[in-house]
Design brief:
Blueprint (H helix, E strand, L loop, with lengths): L1 E8 L8 E4 L15 H11 L29 E9 L11 E9 L4 E5 L2 E3 L1 H8 L14 H8 L3 H12 L2 H223 L1
Antiparallel strand pairs: 1-2, 1-3, 3-4, 4-5, 5-6
Length: 391
C-alpha cells in the first residue's frame, strides 16, 4: 500500500488544479522557501480529516481557500483528493485503488468522498484506523512530532506506538463499547423512572376506579330519588290540567266577547285611519308649498349677498381711484416744476455750449497756425539740409 497521487485545487496557494504522482519508491519534493512545499503536507493532512486551524497554519477555516491576488480572482472552493494503492489489502475495502477527497466551500460547508461517494468523516477515520495513515498518525511526521518521539514523557509517545502496534482500533472499539454500556445504563435508569411514573399513574387510576364505584352507587340512588320527584310532579300537573279544563268554558265565552269588541274597534279604527290619510295628504301639499317658498327665499338671500358684495367692491374701487387721481395730480404738479427747472438748466447748458464752441474754434485756429508755422520751419530745415549737402 502506497500513496500514488495527490490532486490539489483551490487549497491555499494552489489556484490551478495540480496533480502530483508518486511511485512506489522514495519520492522527494524540493524547492526554495515560500514555494509551497509545506502546503502540500498541509493538503495531505487536511484531506485525511485534520480539523485544527493552527496545525494547518491558518488563522481561520476560510483561509485554506485561495484568496486571490491582484492578477487573479479569489476562489470559492478548495478541494484535495488523495489516491492510495491498496494492493496489499491493508485497508478494509474491496477496492484495489482508494481515492479520498475533501471539499470545502467558503460558506463553511465541508464534504467528504470515498471513491466518488459522499461519506462521513467518521467513515474515513474508521477506514484508516491502525494503518498509520491519518492527520495525527506517524504517516505524516513534522518537526514537533520528532520531538514527541524523542521525548522522555511516556504518554507523548504512546499514541504513535499504539498506532504502529495496531491497537488503536481495539481501543476505539473499547471506547465505543463503554459508551454504549453507559448509554444502556442511562436507558435503564430512564426505564426505572418510567416504571415509577407508570406505577404512580396506576395507583392514581385505582383511586379513580374506587371513586367511580362510589359515584355509581350515588348515581343509582339519585336516579331513584329523581323518579320519585318526577312522579310527584306528574300528579301535580294532572291536577292543574283538570283545573284548566274546568275553566275552559268561561274562557271561551270571554274570548267571544273580546272578539266582538275587537271587531267594533277595527271599524272605528278604519274610519279614523281614512281621516288621518286625508289630513296627511293636506299636510304634504302644505309642506311642498312651504319648500318652494323656502327655495325662493334662499335665492333672494343669495342675490342680496351678491349685490352687497358688488356694492362693497365698487365703494372700494371708488376710494382707490380717488386716491390714485389725487396722486396723479400731485405728480403732474411736481413734474411741471421739474420741467421748468430743466428748461432753465437747458438754457444755461446751451449758453455754455455756445461759449465752448467759440473758444474751441479759437483754439483750433491757433493750432492750425502753429501747425502751419511748424511745417514752414520744417521745409526751411529741409532746404537748409540740402544746401549743406551740396556744399
Amino acid at each position: 500500500m502506497y500513496l500514488s497521487k495527490l490532486e490539489i485545487f483551490g487549497f491555499k496557494s494552489f489556484a490551478d488544479k495540480t496533480t502530483i504522482e508518486f511511485d512506489s519508491g522514495v519520492c522527494a519534493i524540493v524547492g526554495p522557501n515560500g514555494s509551497g512545499k509545506s502546503n502540500i503536507v498541509d493538503a495531505l493532512r487536511w484531506v485525511l480529516g485534520e480539523q485544527g486551524d493552527k496545525i494547518l497554519r491558518s488563522g481561520k477555516r476560510e483561509d485554506i481557500v485561495f484568496n486571490g491576488t491582484k492578477f487573479r480572482k479569489p476562489l470559492s472552493i478548495a478541494e484535495v483528493a488523495v489516491t492510495i494503492q491498496n494492493n496489499k489489502n491493508r485497508l478494509p475495502t474491496e477496492y484495489s485503488e482508494v481515492q479520498i477527497a475533501r471539499r470545502f466551500y467558503r460558506s463553511g460547508e465541508t464534504e467528504y468522498y470515498l471513491n466518488g461517494t459522499r461519506v462521513r468523516l467518521k467513515d474515513i477515520r474508521e477506514l484508516f484506523i491502525d494503518t498509520g495513515i491519518g492527520p495525527d498518525a506517524y504517516s505524516v511526521i513534522e518537526l514537533k512530532m520528532v520531538e514527541t518521539i524523542l521525548s522522555d514523557i511516556k504518554h507523548e509517545r504512546r499514541k504513535l506506538f499504539e498506532e504502529a502496534a495496531g491497537v488503536v482500533s481495539y481501543k476505539h472499539n473499547r471506547d465505543l463499547t463503554f459508551n454504549r454500556l453507559d448509554a444502556v445504563h442511562e436507558s435503564l435508569l430512564r426505564v426505572n423512572d418510567i416504571i415509577r411514573e407508570k406505577q404512580r399513574n396506576v395507583n392514581a387510576l385505582e383511586r379513580q376506579a374506587k371513586r367511580n364505584e362510589e359515584a355509581k352507587l350515588v348515581s343509582e340512588e339519585l336516579k331513584t330519588l329523581e323518579l320519585k320527584v318526577s312522579g310527584y310532579e306528574f300528579k301535580v300537573l294532572l291536577g292543574e290540567i283538570e283545573e284548566i279544563k274546568s275553566k275552559e268554558a268561561g274562557n271561551l265565552n270571554l274570548k267571544k266577547t273580546l272578539s266582538e269588541e275587537i271587531n267594533e274597534n277595527d271599524i272605528v279604527l278604519d274610519r279614523y285611519r281614512n281621516e288621518v290619510e286625508t289630513i296627511e295628504k293636506k299636510l304634504s301639499d302644505i309642506n311642498i308649498k312651504l319648500s318652494s317658498k323656502k327655495e325662493e327665499l334662499n335665492i333672494l338671500e343669495k342675490e342680496t349677498l351678491v349685490l352687497e358684495e358688488k356694492i362693497k367692491n365698487l365703494n372700494n374701487d371708488i376710494s382707490r381711484l380717488t386716491k390714485e387721481n389725487q396722486q396723479l395730480s400731485d405728480n403732474r404738479i411736481r413734474n411741471e416744476e421739474k420741467r421748468s427747472g430743466l428748461n432753465d438748466k437747458i438754457k444755461v447748458l446751451a449758453n455754455t455750449i455756445y461759449v465752448s464752441e467759440i473758444s474751441l474754434n479759437e483754439k483750433k485756429a491757433k493750432v492750425d497756425d502753429s501747425i502751419r508755422i511748424i511745417n514752414e520751419k520744417k521745409n526751411e530745415m529741409l532746404e537748409l539740409g540740402k544746401k549743406l549737402k551740396d556744399i
